[in-house]
Every structure is written in C-alpha cells, then in structure tokens.
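Following up on my earlier thread - several people asked me to post the actual chain instead of describing it. Fair enough. Here it is, all 500 residues.
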Amino acid sequence: MPKWSKEAVIGFIPVMFVFLAFIGVNIVPLLVAGMLIGALFFIVKMKGGIAVGAGGERKRKKNGPAKLTFEEIGGQDNAKQELREALDFLIRHEEIKKFGIRPLKGILLTGPPGTGKTLMAKAAAHYTNSVFVAASGSEFVEMYVGVGAGRIRDLFKDARTRAAKENKQSAIIFIDEIDVIGGKREGGQQREYDQTLNQLLTEMDGIFTADAPRILVIAATNRKEMLDSALLRPGRFDRHIQVDLPDKKGRAHILKLHAGNKPLGADVDLDKIAEEAYGFSGAQLESVMNEAAIYTMRANEEYILQRHLSMAIDKVMMGERSDRESNIEEKKRVAIHELGHAIMAELVRPGSVKQVALSPRGKALGYVRHNPQQEQYLYTKSFLEEQIMIALGGAAAEEMYYGGRSTGSSNDFEQSLNIVETMMKSGLTSLGIINMNMVTTEELMKENNVILEDLMNRTKFLLGQNRAIFDNSLDILMREEILSGDQFRCQFRENTLLPA
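Reply from S.P.:
Thanks for posting it. Predicted structure:
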C-alpha cells in the first residue's frame, strides 16, 4: 500500500462531510457512527497491544533481561553442564550437520520451586547470544475460546521478529509454569487448555532448525508428572534436565554470591551456614542473606555477624519470632512436647540436637533445632523408622505426662504419614513391592496403622526409660526458655545413658 494512502484518506473524509452538508444531507448520524467506529477501533487496538498475552508484555521488554551468565548461578553444576551441552547444538549448528545430528527443539527444566530454573533460561540466552522471550503459562489462560492459541502464535512470531530486528541468529522462548497449559488431555469435551496445548505442539513441530532464526523452547515446571505425553516425546522437549535442591557445596556458592554486596563480619563462616541450611533452595538462601542484613540494620550494627545469619535461618525455616504469650500450663505442655522430640533425636542419633527453645516462631509455640546433617539421598528402613519416632516423640511425651495429646502434634503426624507413604512406595513395608493405585484404601490404612502403632509403642518405651532426663531438662527449659545442645547432652551423661 502506498505511503500516502493513509494521509489521502484522512484528508478525504472531512471534505466528504463538508460536501454532504453543502448539498443538504443530514450528517449528524454519520458523525455519530464514525465516532463509535473510531472508539471501537481504538479499544481493539489498545487491547491487542497490551493483552495479546505474552506478545504485548514482551513488546515492552525490547531490551530483554539483564545479562546473566552461568557463573552467576550458584550450585547446580550438573544441571548447568547438561544445559550447556544442549545449547551447543544451537551454537555449533554447522558442525553438527556433518554428523547428521538433529538439533534440539525443546528443553524441559524440572525441579522444586526456587532452584533457579528461570535464571538458567536467562543464562542460556546470554550463552547462545539469543533473543530471550519469556512468558508464564498463566498468561495463555482465558475464558474465551481461541485466545490462548492466538497468544502462542504471537509468542513465536514475536521471537522471530525480534531476532530479525536485532540481527540475531537464534531466539530462546521460555515458558514458565508450562503445566498450566501442558497438562494431560482428557477425553470428552474440548477445553480451551487443549486448544492452547495443540497450538504449542503445532508451533514446535513447525520449528525447522536449519532456518534462521533458529528457535529453541525452554520450559520450566515443578510438576512434570502432570504434563501431557505429547509434549514430552522426542522431537519436542528432547532434553529433560533436573534442577534439584543444591548440595552443601552449591549452598556455600550461592551464599557467597549473595554476600557479595553485603558487609560481613570477621566471624562469619558461610560454609558453616551452608551446613545449617540443609535442604534450602537457592531462593531461600538468598532470603537468609537478606534477612541477616535486616537483623543487622535493626540492631544498628555495621557488619553482619554469624548470629545474624543463624537467626535468619530460623526465620526462613520457621517464621518470625512471635510475641504471643502462653500461660504456665500451656508453656509446660509445649516444653514437654519439644523435649520428647529432642530426647528421641538424641537417643537414635547422638549429638544431633543443637537447641531446644520455647520461643514462639510462626505457628509453632516451640521448636527443636538440629545440628547439620550429612548430605543423604538414599534412606534405609531403619533410618525412616527413626525419623518417624522423632516426629512421634512430642505426642508420646504428652501422653506420658498428661494421658492424652493436643493439637500441637498435627504437623508431626502429617510428617509421619508422609514418611510411611514413602516406605510403602519403596517396598519397605510388609505389603512388599506394590502399585499404590492397585491397593485398596482399607489395606493401606491398615498397614499405616500397624506401622505407626508399633513405632509409637517403641517411642513411649524409650522415653519412659529416660523420665529423669525429662524432669531435669524441664526445669531448665521452663526457667531459661532455651536449652542448648551441650546442656541437654549433659543430662544424658549424668544419667549414664549415652557415652560421653
């Protein structure tokens, strides 16, 4: 269309209205109709520019994400290495032709929340010098049929357009929470989610890796089991990379990265903090450093000290210290409950208790803090049974002193039930090797009750043999509200039940 056509139309319309008025035609209805059409066109244009899902949002992100390298992501060495190898197919496309290798179309990052899946996708864009286009699965969900599918088309179109405009040879499309649109399809009525998923499958099938710009789709989810099998097959998401919680070395690396802009005191030992933060994700470790800085600022101190970091771990793990005050009887029950956990932990794993406290945190009225444990990925039946006995220790102690339990044991029972379920799935119960879906609920509940009743009786027996430790430790805990691990183990040595 000629460049002057728009100006010609704009100039012709007012002349036409003047002419119609001159020859006596009533132009008021025409003016009203023209204004309505113009307003409607403006609304549609604004709607398309802002909410055409991910497309509109991405147009506002023309500069892309801040540059991020794999070296700036702590831990995840195996996941980063596997991702680099997959990305090399995108970079060395001429070389892989010699071997007849089909380049990858999609990479699926799976793992718990907060482990760095989004960060790895951004680092992948920097590593390959690609355009980075990001969207969340929830952006494609609409009540109107066909909108999600249209946004998928716009997503891929936007990636190609931006790559051409920025003169890049490749583009990476990152879809977070892909389980929202990529869930398993069920028979029966067609859903809007199904149309969106079908469009995504079609777009991925239409990626010709020899064409420029080359498109790579990276998706992230923490619920891989919910994804449709059509997404997971080779030719779509070819690589599935597990992004797990970091180990001790990875946690130390993450802490050092987030400590880079913070004033640390001379007594700070980040390796020790990494030990104490067992099971923390990268996001939680970042929060630990941030909360430690907040504690330092709150105390009007210049440097972050080791105690600030320990306090931050407690806050991230259990919540902020509460100002709730319990009456004497409730406080005594909480003390007995926590001592039950602590005594069982010390009996089955000597040296494991670091502190017993009555200070309320989050929803907990008291807590037992354990010493850092070694990295462990396989668990035996005896280990899991000991873990259940530690969890049941609080309820067992209440029964010893009061003849009944309280609502404070609800989380302990939930933890115990989860461990029993793990044992059943792993073939560590009398049911043997089973498929959980093929066993009736009655059978599972019967086995569950047998296991828990047996472990509860063993727990009560062991705690009953250590009644003197309860009485002596209870006096200290009620008076000082904090019982250190050394004080606690001193009670055991005095009663000659544990080696010194």
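DSSP finds 19 helices and eight strands in the chain. That should answer part of your original question.
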